[in-house]
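Example A, followed by Example B.
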Amino acid sequence: MSGHELESTANLLVARGKGILAIDESLPSIKKRFDSIGVESTAETRRAYRDLLITTKGAEQYVSGMILFDETIRQSTADGTLFPQVMKKVGIIPGIKVDQGAKDLAGHPGEKITEGLDGLRERLKEYYELGARFAKWRAVITIEEGLPTVGCMNANAHALARYAALCQEAGLVPVVEPEVLMEGSNTVDRCYDVTEATLRSVFNALYEQRVVLERLVLKTNMVVSGKLCATQAGIEEVAAKTVRCLRNSVPAAVAGIVFLSGGQSAQLATAHLNAINAIAGQDPWPLSFSFGRALQEPSLKIWAGKESNRETAQKALYHREKCNSLACLGKYVLDMEQDLAA
């Protein structure tokens, strides 16, 4: 893929009113989701569930791309059509998760480093042949007493940058995802400081690895209070701090920014996204979504492993996709939850 095509794909991923559906859970992660609804995680149940997500009618109005897992990109619908082909037919760009998970970082108790660079060049070539046109790599940054360390931030930034360079070499748009986790008791201001430092480290590393910023998408957390913090920042405060943080740390050349939901409820993630776009104004990049649980959770619970629930589950997914599309335009209000569900 030429540089022009990479830029075009990156821009399509963040097209106005569209975002990314993340359905790239690892086998342990999808097992936890299935355990919560009493469904055994097998190759067939995973295929059936992801078939439901991928084939939801009308999703292409609101979804630009879908991030798949290694198993999923090789699977097919019931009639034997490979999932990437189904997506391309309706104009949804197939993507692929390529990291191999976060492992303990040696010498840094309580911190993680994402692995998967070994053999990545060859895997990217195969994924391109399977139909993928963008990829994702997630790094996790923990906020605790004395954490994160500069060493952890820089190690993950370097891995993200090397991954991104290999993606662009292979003709895939890299989605660069440094996630500051929201699991702790930290304040929203502490989240702001760590997110800003993390993003600056990432973009320094991307520059050093000669990654073309116009040909990548940033996936990042919103600036929120830790889940265990006694004082939770309100929607407007989260929006203001998130926008300010991005303005201070993300170069204008980046094709676009998509937010992860990070464990937020479906409606709260949408409300935050809407408030962010309502104040973003003339910022140089589109601000969109790349949600996993915040899009899937209602559908997963409705489906519960039963084919008879498939249509209702797809309606719930379509509803969440439409709500988040409106939030990208700053046009979402809570009343729409009932209006759109009707």
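Example B, a separate protein, is given below in the same form.
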Amino acid sequence: MSLTRDQAVDEILTVVQAAWTTVGGQDSSRLKYENVGTKSLPPTGQSAWARVVLRHTESRQATLSGAQGSRTFRRNGVLTVQVFSPTGRGIIGTSDLDTIIRDAYEGTTTSGGVEFRNVTINEVGQDGDFFQVNVVARFEYDTIR
């Protein structure tokens, strides 16, 4: 399968949106994306929230050109979902949102062909009024040109 960068980003973010709202039962306004106006600012209050950070890291030619002259380019990157839960509940007492998000990506491939690997949960620690846990997933997809 072949995806453009925009298509791949859309598929990657659709997974976290569904995990956050449908499975996690959270308000979509508490899921923040980088560079989306003031909506990317941290919310206040004592409810969990998350920030989504997507970074493409490398790209390489994966195949030689075929009869039509097209080549496959493999795009790689890292998705980090920073989950912030109210403090004072201990590591085990933090929300299950990190596990829900991890499970949404772990061992999966989107319908368009974005593959996720090495999905981990990293406890970061206290950040102001919240305890931060990062869910980190490596991804890759192909573009044919």
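On Example B: The chain has a mean pLDDT of 88.
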